[in-house]
UniProtKB/TrEMBL annotation:
CDD domains: 45_DOPA_Dioxygenase. This is DODA-type extradiol aromatic ring-opening family dioxygenase. The keyword Cytoplasm does not apply. Its EC number is 1.13.-.-. Belongs to the DODA-type extradiol aromatic ring-opening dioxygenase family. One of its GO terms (molecular function) is dioxygenase activity.
């Protein structure tokens, strides 16, 4: 498969809980720009993928674990939201055959991997993908993060999976470039911008080697621990970056939400 038809990889923001499907208190338009970005993301993807592999900020295991569920249920892993948000649906089929391919590639790279035949889609998957591919007609599977949250391990796992892009699989890290639940205030506007500037420059580094070296040292970035005190919503980026191979990343979305800067990125793609 040529570079022009290789599927790009992404790191996307998935918002706050079921934010796109409710009236947000205080500002009903808070999430409009992010929702519009997600609705139009298919244009950056290009041709409809054969399957989608998602690494969500809401699934961690002792070892990398692959969902093999054929018809995944939904996990409503958010709390205190309106009743109708616990009735949202996203009936996309699972992808057991792709799951086995993920297992084989990780195993070949000598990365320990487990499987989970009961796992459902958490909200880091079904909330954004209800906007990205609302017909739910593309098979979707998840790969967990590893509880170590070691960036080097996640970059290596992504690198082991990059061949999937030549097989029509869309790899998406779903998290938030800012994720401090106590930090959505004006005091965090400038720290979030400093970290975002560093992250965007690192992702756009002129070589994959430079990019990966910077991402491995993300904790040294300006205001890193203020923006990501527990980096479960940042580590999905590492898998997407690892799977990018030599493709240079670029920012494709930026917004200020609840006083902080939040961004989205692509590696490869139509205009790379």
């Amino acid at each position: 498969m040529s570079d022009a038809t290789r599927v790009p990889t992404f790191f996307i923001p998935h918002g706050g809980g079921p934010c796109f499907f409710m009236n947000w208190p205080g500002d009903p338009h808070m999430w409009d720009r992010m929702a519009d970005f997600l609705r139009n993301m298919h244009q950056e993807v290009g041709s409809k993928p054969k399957a989608i592999l998602v690494i969500s900020g809401h699934w961690m295991e002792d070892e990398f674990t692959v969902m093999t569920t054929a018809q995944p249920p939904l996990i409503y892993d958010y709390y205190g939201f309106p009743p109708h948000t616990y009735e949202l649906t996203y009936p996309a089929p699972g992808a057991p055959a792709v799951a086995q391919r993920v297992v084989d590639l990780l195993t070949a790279a000598r990365i320990p991997v487990k499987t989970d035949s009961q796992r459902g889609y958490d909200h880091g998957v079904f909330i954004p993908f209800k906007l990205i591919y609302p017909d739910a007609d593309i098979p979707v599977l998840q790969l967990s993060m590893k509880k170590t949250l070691d960036p080097a391990e996640h970059l290596r796992a992504g690198a082991a999976l990059q061949q999937l892009r030549d097989e029509g699989v869309l790899i998406v890290g779903s998290g938030m470039s800012f994720h401090n639940m106590r930090g959505f205030s004006p005091a965090f506007t400038e720290p979030s911008k400093r970290f975002d500037d560093w992250l965007s420059a690192s992702i756009a580094a002129p070589s994959a080697q430079q990019r990966d070296a910077l991402l491995q040292e993300w904790e040294k970035a300006p205001d890193a621990k203020l923006t990501q005190p527990h980096p479960d919503h940042l580590l999905p980026l590492m898998v997407a970056a690892g799977a990018a191979g030599d493709d240079i990343g670029r920012k494709i979305f930026e917004d200020k939400v609840m006083n902080v800067v939040v961004s989205g990125y692509v590696f490869g793609g139509q205009t790379a």
